[in-house]
Automatic annotation (TrEMBL), chain A:
GO cellular component, one term: plasma membrane
Name recorded for this polypeptide: Binding-protein-dependent transport systems inner membrane component
Annotated organism of origin: Sinorhizobium medicae (strain WSM419) (Ensifer medicae)
Residue spans crossing the bilayer: 12-33, 74-95, 102-125, 131-150, 157-179, 206-224, 265-286
Keyword Oxidoreductase: no
InterPro entries noted in UniProt: MetI-like, MetI-like_sf, UgpAE/MalFG_permease
Membrane association type: Multi-pass membrane protein
Family to which the UniProt record says this protein belongs: Belongs to the binding-protein-dependent transport system permease family.
Pfam families: BPD_transp_1
Keyword Nuclease: no
From TrEMBL, chain B:
A single cellular component GO annotation: ATP-binding cassette (ABC) transporter complex, substrate-binding subunit-containing
InterPro entries: SBP
PANTHER family: MALTOSE-BINDING PERIPLASMIC PROTEIN, MALTOSE_MALTODEXTRIN-BINDING PERIPLASMIC PROTEIN
Protein name: Extracellular solute-binding protein family 1
A GO molecular-function annotation: maltose binding
Organism encoding this protein: Sinorhizobium medicae (strain WSM419) (Ensifer medicae)
Similarity field: Belongs to the bacterial solute-binding protein 1 family.
Signal recorded as keyword: yes
Amino acid sequence: MMLRNRRNEGLFGLALVAPFVAIYGLVFVYPTIKLFMTSFTDAPLIGDGNFVGFDNYARLPSDRRFGTAVWNTAYFVLITVVPGTLLAFAIALGVNRLAGRLQAAVLALFFLPYILPVSVVYLLWDWTLNFQFGIAMYLFDMLGIARIPVFKSTAWFMPAVGMITIWWTAGFSILLFLAGLRTIPTEIYEAAALDNAGRWSTFRRITWPLMWPITALVLTIQLISQLKIFDQVYLFSVGGRPNDNMVLVYYVFQRAFQSDQGGRAAAVAVVLFVIVIVVSVLNFQLTRLSGGRDR
Amino acid sequence: MPNWFKLTKAVLLAGGLMTSVAHAEETVTWWDFFGGGDGVRMKQLVADFNEAHKGKIKIDATTLEWGTPFYSKVQTSAAVGEAPDIMTYHASRIPLAVKQGILQEITADDWKTMGLGRSDYAPATWEAVSIDGKQYAVPLDTHPIVLYYNKDLLKKAGVLGDDGKPKGMDSRENFTATLKALKAAGVKFPLGSVTADGNFMFRTVYSFMGQQDGELMTDGEFLAGDSAKKLENSLAVLSEWTKEGLQSTYTDYPATVALFTSGEAAMMINGVWEVPTMTDLKNNGKLFEWGAVELPVIFDHPSTYADSHTFALPANKGEEMSPEKRAAVLEVMSWMSKNSLFWATAGHIPAYGPVTNSAEYKAMEPNHTYSSLTANIIFDPKTPLAGIAGPIFDVMSNFFVPTLNGEMEPAKAVEEIKAGLAEL
């Protein structure tokens, strides 16, 4: 057996992580630093600009479209993150009670939307809810309800896109919850049954607290991905009334690619970056604290 | 373990051999954004070109998504030297492209090589591709909007004139009367309007502004003087039609075309690029008798908004175009211009004068009927903020949708648009 050489081992370890560090530096760290630098300039989309200090940031509070974007993003997070997580949990609990082929089939049904690309999701729902030709509208007509221009009215847009997003992404959360449910030893449930615990108290005293780490994980994943919402909002609002349905990433895109203002776009991107970091750290701490209570 | 070095070498060698074989033929990479009926025609033109230049030049064409996606891609690809050799471009987008430095100038020598020049184009068209006296694109066509109509339905409602054109094209009152007659005759939507897509409605609204000599931008100022009032008037007409149930509401682009072709809408304001859709449907026996005419005169005098499709050469950063490639690209633009009579079957009005002056062109229908509008065309204001998928489009469209569907008063919309434009 060879003698271990600490120094060699360290070098070997470095060599193994080097490719990752290099790629991470190239495609994440470097662009991020560049982003911060660009946000202090009046750069167009292509090329460099002059240093303008905090101008790009100073104009944000009075920028109405930025205000709409912040509000809509927050609203979207509110209507998708917690409801989406709870719904996925509920579905996972249901699927968990099934067994064998039936369970696999039902799980597949719930997971199917998740593998669809966003463009297909958009087409499916546009065909369903289109004001003139959507299938749902004929249903409305039959029931005598007035047609609703779902994606063209500000009141309906965000709730509809939120619902579609939950439908689309719930599959992945369900899988995580299901994996979590399977790690809870059956002995605990047996012990609870011996103690005459009812279904509700079994859930409240055993399943919920034991599942909390998974719930916290799903919440965090959902929170971060919904803060970065773009694709669905873009597809459903392009050509219509984009500025009323503005979300933060869309605003970055609009400033950069449509208005040719790289510097101002970068400033908005930095704000979003900070929001995501703050909110996810806060979320992590909160879920940790509240999770500790029941233990 | 396989010898990766040898393998890589072999692959590289094979690749090198292939390019040297193909070298005799110059391949021109081409991007366009023609996805509809006109896309079919453009593919035909490209195939014809390749046939006529076999062994010399070959166009390798790709069609990308029209609008924002196309222009986002062009801007970024030119910046990293990955843009095509030639691309189609909207004249309205040229001011921004020149500001960004992503287009090559078409020099006087180039024009000479192509055998084309200023005298071949209408002054407004030539002006649309010129910035500070330099040209940045070769105009292919102008594409205005027109009024499509269903002759069968109009006849039934008694509003088809003896000349085969709709009645009431001369004033707001008379045109509204025509719409009402259609409604009374049981037509679901007298006018099919793209009311869910503010980007599209810009064309109609701006045409109506032009009918009152309103300007979007005067000496760098948006909606100066009474132009704001003229915008309000234009929106008021359209929202009045909505209130009286005369036009389709919350209808997006494809739905509008579908409403018209299925006979649920008797008339439709849309671009000339839908002419091939109608022609093809009619040839397959799936369409009624139809026609297309210049927009009705709702205000003082006829006026129609148009943009121009052009050919432009991207300024690929860090990539010098070889003389052989440049010659090939110039040949492409020259050939396409001179053979643009076929492009007229896509509805567009060819920009190249000798084509539109030819007897063959004058015999084409419905092109000839609506060609009267060429005298009354207005283009976008010349600013980097204008054009397809540009910021002005976005701001205005955002308030067109609520206004045209009766959610917002025209006066309020104009106020919001002015505030939005000031924030650009």
